[in-house]
């Protein structure tokens, strides 16, 4: 697969430029068509070279407009595919996170702490936000790492990064597990009873 | 905090959806500009008036082609002119149904076709005035001006309709015609 990393902004700018070109060229096409019609009305035959040239120009311009329109439609549909892809990716990741938390049997408090860890908050900030002592958060975080069989914050976060980088955003199933070669049962990769056993 | 799956799908459901592509928006605002110019500022018997009128005509022409081959929300198929849909839409509104139409709502669709046809009719009668066959014939000129009156009325209704639907659905339609995106309030059905 060829990957081109154009930012969404760049794509939107390209789409706008294309739209502007379509309009300008459409107007030019109409000008030539009008001119051909007018000339034809005035002298009534099409074989004069001037008229022929203008007709060719008109046809070329109309063809160009159609081509640019198809091009713009392609660009727009790629933009909307990418948006769907992102939605699926983020929706899917949320599902994966939920599944993992369920499997690890995290308590409600531990889930909160785990999510805040994933969002990059440090223990002190988490303690402030949850209005608990830093020690409590540290204990909860330790418990999260233990239940997820990771040795700390970095490894814990990388479990989920792996899931994102796996590329294939289908449901977490045996197929993905086999493809990544991490385990041979249907548990998600990184699950304490699969990759760590 | 706990229910993250719901939280993030909630974020995708109070969402911005791209509905009007740049070509539609460019055509819309240039068309509005040409009509404003020809209706209010440009000397009616000038060559400029004719040029601007033809520009308006070709804007509609390009838009019509785009309605055949453009992306989903731009196509005629997304907003067919259908009295049945209009009556269903009105009943749904009366019931308080808040379903949001990504393309034009059925009433807006009728107005859209009406405005296109009206602009074409003005352009055609304008052109007729310049031809020898119809030069100086009163009814053509009268038609040109009468149809323009109809266009003014339509545009007033059009803007009132936009204001009404913005109030009713809570989706800022003018913003959508500028930025291209409709902001759909959380948990609302779309069609
Ligand atoms: C001469 C003036 C105008 C004309 C001829 C005109 C014509 C049109 C047409 C033909 C459409 C359909 C667009 C398409 O599908 O390509 C449309 C849509 C729209 N116009 Fe206008 N318009 C005019 C002025 C305005 C003004 C002043 C506003 C803002 C207040 C406005 C706001 C909108 C909006 C929001 C839509 C999209 C409606 C929807 O969501 O269904 N228009 N207009
Ligand atoms: C969207 C397009 C157009 C609009 C909104 C428009 C609007 C108008 C209006 C309001 C008038 C009456 C002005 C007055 O009597 O004070 C007028 C007159 C006229 N228009 Fe247009 N027009 C348009 C397109 C055209 C085109 C395409 C042509 C010709 C190629 C044209 C040719 C004329 C002529 C010749 C008159 C003068 C009639 C007369 O008083 O003898 N118009 N137009």
Give an overview in words:
- The complex is a heterodimer of chains A (197) and B (191).
- Chain A is mainly α and 197 residues long.
- Chain A has seven helices and no strands.
- Chain A has two domains: 2-87; 90-186, Arc Repressor Mutant, subunit A (Orthogonal Bundle).
- Chain B has a single domain (18-179), classed as Transmembrane di-heme cytochromes, Chain C (Fumarate Reductase Cytochrome B subunit).
- Chain B has a two-stranded antiparallel sheet with strand order 1-2.
- The interface between A and B is medium-sized, with 36 and 28 residues.
- The structure holds protoporphyrin IX containing FE (2 copies).
- One protoporphyrin IX containing FE is lined by residues 24, 27-28, 31-32, 35-36, 63, 104, 108, 112, 115-116, 155, 158-159, 162, 173-174, 176-177 of chain B.
> Helical percent range of chain B?
55-70%
Percent of residues of chain A in beta strands? under 5%
Poorly predicted tracts of residues of chain B: 1-13
Major sheet of chain A, described briefly?
A: none
Number of strands of chain B: 2
Number of domains of chain A: 2
CATH architecture of the largest domain in chain A, please?
Orthogonal Bundle
Contiguous helical run count of chain A: 7
CATH class of chain B: Mainly Alpha
**Can you tell me the overall shape of chain A?**
rod-shaped
Average pLDDT over all residues of chain B: 84
- Which topology of chain B does CATH recognise? Fumarate Reductase Cytochrome B subunit
Which superfamily, in CATH terms, is the homologous superfamily of chain B? Answer: Transmembrane di-heme cytochromes, Chain C
- Strands of the widest sheet of chain B, in order across it, are 1-2
Q: Between the first and last Cα atoms of chain B, what is the distance in angstroms?
A: 30 Å
Arithmetic mean of pLDDT of chain A: 76
Low-confidence stretches of chain A: 1-5, 167-197
- Assign a percent range to the helix content of chain A: over 70%
């Amino acid at each position: 697969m060829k990957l081109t990393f154009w930012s969404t902004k760049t794509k939107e700018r390209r789409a706008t430029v294309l739209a502007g070109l379509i309009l300008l060229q459409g107007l030019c096409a109409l000008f030539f068509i009008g001119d051909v019609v007018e000339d034809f009305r005035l002298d009534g035959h099409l074989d004069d070279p001037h008229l022929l040239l203008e007709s060719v120009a008109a046809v070329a311009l109309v063809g160009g407009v159609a081509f640019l329109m198809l091009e713009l439609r392609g660009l727009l549909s790629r933009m909307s595919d990418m948006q769907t892809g992102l939605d699926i990716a983020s929706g899917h990741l949320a599902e994966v996170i939920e599944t993992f938390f369920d499997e690890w049997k995290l308590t409600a408090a531990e889930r909160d702490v785990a999510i805040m860890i994933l969002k990059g908050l440090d223990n002190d900030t988490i303690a402030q936000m949850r209005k608990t002592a830093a020690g409590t958060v540290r204990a909860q975080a330790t418990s999260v790492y233990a239940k997820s069989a990771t040795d700390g914050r970095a490894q814990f976060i990388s479990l989920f990064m792996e899931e994102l980088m796996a590329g294939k955003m289908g449901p977490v199933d045996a197929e993905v597990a086999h493809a990544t070669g991490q385990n041979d049962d249907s548990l998600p990769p990184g699950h304490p009873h699969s990759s760590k056993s | 905090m706990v229910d993250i799956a719901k939280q993030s799908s909630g974020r995708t459901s109070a969402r911005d959806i791209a509905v009007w592509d740049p070509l539609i928006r460019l055509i819309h605002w240039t068309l509005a500009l040409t009509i404003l110019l020809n209706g209010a500022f440009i000397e009616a018997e000038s060559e400029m008036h004719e040029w601007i009128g033809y520009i308006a005509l070709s804007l509609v022409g390009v838009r019509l082609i785009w309605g055949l081959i453009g992306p989903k929300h731009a196509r005629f198929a997304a907003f067919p002119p259908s009295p049945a849909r209009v009556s269903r839409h009105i009943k749904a509104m009366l019931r308080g149904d808040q379903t949001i139409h990504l393309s034009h709502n059925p009433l807006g669709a009728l107005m859209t076709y009406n405005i296109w046809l009206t602009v074409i009719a003005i352009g055609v009668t304008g052109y007729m005035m310049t031809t020898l066959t119809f030069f100086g014939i009163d009814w053509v000129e009268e038609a040109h001006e009468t149809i323009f009156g109809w266009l003014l009325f339509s545009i007033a209704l059009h803007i009132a309709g936009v204001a009404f639907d913005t109030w009713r659905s809570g989706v800022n339609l003018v913003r959508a015609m500028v930025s291209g995106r409709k902001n759909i309030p959380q948990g609302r059905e779309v069609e």
